[in-house]
Structures
1.
Amino acid sequence: MGRYAQNPAAIKALHRGYEVHRDVYIDQELYQLEMRHLFANAWVFVGHESQTPEKGDYFSTQVGDQPVIQVRHSDGEVHVLFNRCPHKGTKIVIDRAGNTGKFFRCPYHAWSFKTDGCLLAIPLKKGYENTGFENSDSAKGMRAVGAVKNYRGFIFCRLAETGISFEEFFGGSLSSIDNMVDRSPAGRLEVAGPPLRYLHHCNWKMLVENQTDTCHPMVAHESSAGTAVKLWKELDMPEGTPLPPAMEIIAPFTSPYEFFEKMGIRTWPNGHGHTGVHHSIHSNYSEIPGYMDKMVESYGEEKAKAILGENRHNTVYFPNIMIKGPIQQLRVFIPLAADRTIVESYIYRLVDGPEELTARTAMYNRMINAPTSIVGHDDLEMYERAQEGLHVNGLEWVNIQRLYEPGEDFSHEAVENGTTERQMRNQFDAWVKFMTCDMDGVQEAAE
């Protein structure tokens, strides 16, 4: 057993307000504790209901390091089950998605289960008579996660059987999901194809922090976005020439510090927050003909303007997803090891909305988040340099002190300067909370 296991005091000491210890990024024991505690106690994104539209449809993914299956049961409800046969532990499905029909069947010994996980049948069942099998955990079938919530089509789960409620965990932060869904004239989204997916050689928290880091775009992206803007200017186009869609997307990455300062950052309890309170890099995209008319027809003019006037940049839902409401995108940062993270970038279609918006979102995803991205590789290089640099013994602490105020309180919503690092501190406050909430008292009892 390492120095952090069942030692909440040691874990809490890793975050001291304006800085965090490098171990939170590089220590493999802490990574394993995150999988056991943080990702079990928090509410974590699983998938979207449109990925399992029909009865028997399933989608396999992982929550922390736990393989799970999102499946549409015969009653139409979405369930989330651990991807493990209760007999010998065999994974039930290995395909990313499919339709299992009315039941799952283990490929090893043919135990079968209803799509809510209940045991359906066992070959040669008489062999279990008078053994007490009916009282075993295996007789209960595939185990479901502790709790599931379908919020406006987005499926979240809490692995732990007991803990914080969905509503308390997310609170006011759900307004970002509301805005993204409400941008559909029908009030519904559909996933638009598989995600762009690639590996980062860094700790998962680096990616989450970067989503609200507004002091790096004009520096890290100078070589990509800055070069694109320079080349566009060299074309010397007539004044008033509209920017091509690709330039509309990439040019704002070169915005000055003042732009991001005035943008604002909002934080909510439990590690959630977003950039773009007042404006964002998505604020000045060109209008899509006919879109506003459809929105007005659905919501009325006042509400339609309020929905589309909200241009939040990146909303972080702790622990490991980010959404962009104005372009209907979600990124999930899936930890594989202390220094390995898979990033999946999804886009969504606005039901009854113009396909031009889906095309814009797909372009953004390709340009910014794909393995062939123009901009994303700037970030990737910084993550990998940081992952290497944190092993240097000259300093052991990482500074997140920008616009820090002693005695900061994260128990309420706050709006601050758009270059504050408060959201990073907010995330680590939540990190400590959900890493230790089922450890507190353990150390004292042992002593």
2.
Amino acid sequence: MSEATLRVLTLNTLAPFFADWPRRRSVLIEGLRALRPDVVALQEVAGGGEADEAGGLLGPEHHLVPHPGRSADGVGAVLASRWPMRTVGVLDLHVTPRTAALPWSAAVVVEVAVPPPLGPVIVAHYKPTWQYDAEHERELQAVRTARYLEQVVAERRPERVDPHGPDAEPHVVVLGDFDAAPDAASVRFWTGRQSLADVSVCYQDCWAAVRGDEPGHTFSPDNPLVRAGLMPLDRGRRIDYVLVRCGAHGPTLDVADCRLVFAEPVDGVWASDHFGVLAELRLPPHPPGVWH
């Protein structure tokens, strides 16, 4: 991390039982260590706890917080950070019987000890359900997670805030494989374009912040692993996100850059059926809520 800059990555690595895992693993290791992300949300990784495959991909210097629950084959999700993390809360997102199809559907919320002046930062590794026809469940999961994060923010907000001073809001980043495109109700809710269940929040979509209307598909038929997988007719969607929470005057962190990673083969090897999303976050030029 350069001064006052945080590099955040989310990547679904595709369970290691598919598509020549030894070669894919080598591509992932080389790529992840070249990118040097500070905070990483990995989905579809095998193992658990400190022995998780995520540790093998990222290296021993990372702290790991796994999602609760694993599929029968041992696959789940892990959040990793270069700095120590304190678990703030774990939300079970099994909101209807259909969500049982993903045992590790959850939101893991941690406080990452990012050094000053940027940190600490609240990070939520969010994994809703995946089925095409389960947007109702994803709406419920989004509302449950957003409500909890608002409670976390309220606990950290100073009791007295000068209405004419800077926004006294902690930094909150939500990232993961949302399994929903930007026009889905659950993502529209996250990004402040609609309310759900009498709840309204707003998070800056890092991709849209710097890429505008570029499709940015993270699950694409251009990737042969998509065509060979369980959803071979998918026409391409952007379903992996890094989001930054907004206060009354906008996001508390500025998006310096956001790009796709692992979006090309290496010596003919595709790392995963998903492309990763890498965002670089920094302090804004001046605090939101202050006229300069």
3.
Amino acid sequence: MTALPETEEMVDPVPGAAAPHLPNRADLVQLLTPEGDRVEHPDYALEIGHDELRALYRDLVLVRRWDVEATALQRQGELGIWASLLGQEAAQIGAGRAMAASDMAFPTYREHGVAWTRGVDPLHVISLFRGVDNGGWDPVATGFNLYTVVIGAQTLHATGYAMGLQRDGAENAALAFLGDGATSQGEVNEAMIWAASFSAPVVFFCQNNQYAISVPLERQSRVPLYQRAAGFGFPGVRVDGNDVLAVLAVTRQALQAAREGQGPTFIEAFTYRMGAHTTSDDPTRYRLASELEEWKLRDPIARLKAHLSRSSIADAAFFQSVEAEADELAARIRSGTVDMPDPAPTEMFDHVYAEQTPQLAQQRADFVAYQASFEGGEH
């Protein structure tokens, strides 16, 4: 057997940093440097006004505050679990804001930022993690499908939906979200095969946050993830996932190509999960503190704030108003979560099918009788 050549994929241009977690910058689309400097890219021009820049900053701050509050609520026993997006805000806000109103997003269980851009109430997401329902929002009205916990399954849903758009003659696109670990799942590869074969209007948006729970990227793939798209016959692009402007430009272009019949695109948003995989995870067991500190220097909110300040696009009053709005949002999330009523036990039977079947009706009756047997009894 011929040994695979050693890859030079992982390099680290940051002086003194030991963790090899920065890609070779030659293939990384970037429009805003970690220091907040605006740069141009020959393939991804972005014309954006001051109002939109300020709106993107507001999105980033409010979504992070939502995430921080939800993490605290879980630690205090108010949520069963929470999947944090800390550090991935720019990837999600940029991708979500690139979508047209008629497009459909297919999330995993971490796309709170995308949910925000689609008008989903944070409490409707919180209710899912509190265990009072299976998702309180309307996927059709919001263009945002329900969360999917089965790793990679949403890519099949998105591809099937996109093929349906083709057959309906609709000029819309589907945006499928996945993590780096999901690229090893059979469902994802099957979805990309079908999407390529039918030139389906779907964009695969991979948030490469460096870890498939605890497995680092270098143990998942010997080549950059975006290069895998070539094997399926469609374009792949790698974007700085902590640069909201680059993500917006790249995703907008990929979605437009899909709508125009050019088929799928694979986007690898190179980012970093600064928190735990979920609140049941302990990231200190598999990564170094120095690595986290390195990535804090590339914080997506800090770099946009630096750009807004340096370019006189926003002043102190604007930043204070956003922080005040974040405080109000956190208070609403906390009170809304604590006051959230528990569902009736029989509600689990109400939405299994559009019309209740005889078998389900019998199961419900048996359940009601079983519960009644405890009332006033010596159980």
4.
Amino acid sequence: MRKKRRWTNIILWIAVIVAVVWMLFPFYWAVITSIKKPADVFRLSFIPFVQFEPTSENWRSELQMRGQEIKRGLKNSLIIGVCSALVALFIGALAGYGLARYKYHRVKNRDITMWILSQRFLPPAAVVIPFFLIFKTLGLIDSVVGLVLINATFGIPFAVLVTRDAFRDLPEEIEESALVDGCSRFQVFSRIALPLAAPALVAAGIICFAFAWNEFLFAFIMSYSKAVPMTVLIAGTQDTQGIQFWYVATRMLMAVVPPTILALTVQRYIVQGLTFGAVKG
């Protein structure tokens, strides 16, 4: 029995190591590619100072020659990601609470939820032309506001689904006690339901932010100068000689830093909220 358990632990450790290597290798590839000379990029080499000589020329070139462009791209991506996540979370929390606490008769709650969720499965390529024509009429082409609205549109279904399940799991007795004490339904929602569902709200907001941060199609079609985010800048490293992988790696690492810092910062609050739970709140 002890021998069987030992082999089980060994297999689990091997699986964990393989999974970690599998996830971290793209970042390692980006790091070593960003410090390679163009001639070394197309050679099979993974170990700095042994298989190739590292250089900081790629970073200097990007920061000196394209520093303002990259700074504007990071700023646009951050604004689009944060604002679209907040808009999706605001609308999604209201809709999710309504679906969790009210029953609709003409159209059932399940049908409303499925209709909202179906918008998430809608291929973006199917609506990019209508969005372009509408935003052209409204003057929102190459506008950060336009990209915020588009990303919020596709983030709302996920926020609705997550918040609905979170509000549904909350004990209704707490809200009923607040109603008896004289609170309005909106006060119950804002002062009781939202704080208790904070972990789900934070998780939904982070995922909506990640969707907006990684979005490329609408950003590529709707922006060309002022509102260009990092995803479009990363894809713009191709020239007449081909794709400049050393610049792709450099810009990719720059684009990874903000969401990583945000996720590590908010992770503590997620764990704290899940630890205290609804009864503590």
